[in-house]
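Model it.
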Amino acid sequence: MDSNALVLFVDIVEAGNLSSAARQLKMSRANISYHLAQLEKSLGQQLMRRTSRRVALTEVGERLYRHGRVVRDELMAARESVATFGRSLHGSVRLSVPTGFGHLVMSGWLIDFKRRYPDIALELLFDNRVDDLLHEEVDVAVRVMSEPPQQLVATELAPVRYVVCASVEYARSQAMPHTLEDLARVPLITAAVTGRELRVCAYRGEERHELSQRPTLASENFQFLREAILAGLGVGLVPDYVVDQDVAEGRVVTALDGWRLSVFGSRMFLLRMPGRFQTLATRTLIDFIVNQARDWREGLRVGSERA
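Modeled.
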């Protein structure tokens, strides 16, 4: 059996259809289809049933895919081992991170990563979307959500806690929220998804409430939201990491601290596609992010206990 044809078959399966495989492999769809047909002819077996949108594996195709994935990964690992022998760690990784956490927290991590591994080419995307994650051809993604998609491999990095907050000047001149219902009566500054109603979940012990909010100022740029809060334009509803430093230094005060609030989810995950070969560069970045998140989470815990 031709190992190249086997690897191509695995790539087709993981791409989802012939057109996607052609784009990812930079080949024509006709060429992809020809090599697949030749592999099936050499085996005397149909490996997949092709439709315009997706491919469905036959039983034989499923068995071959499982074996082929092992062969593909071993071949790639062998090539990588030879290519990196006697050299510093190199390669390329495409990473997608949330706009807020990416800018305000992870930027420092990733700059440190590049200092440690200057020969790894890091392509960084700032994005909050989840539904298009499978089609972005990223190696690793970090996202905030309640539960990770079942089709992805997820590693939980940290809990995400939202806080109600305002500048000291605003709090001196305006009434701060004392109840959940008060959130509807203040100029609210928060993140929102265009075209969608903002839903806020609030938890306290066994209590759970879901609120509909209409922000007076909304943006996916969390640095802008922080500046708007500091400018006294209203009451912020943002992840705690956005204003932690400002709270510690006395520029911002919080309210409704007895409630645990969530807007887009209460957990942060590192996500990757199952079955996709991870280069040494990708594995190194994943380990680095997981370790940084652990240290960051521990720092928050210690700071909370001291407070």
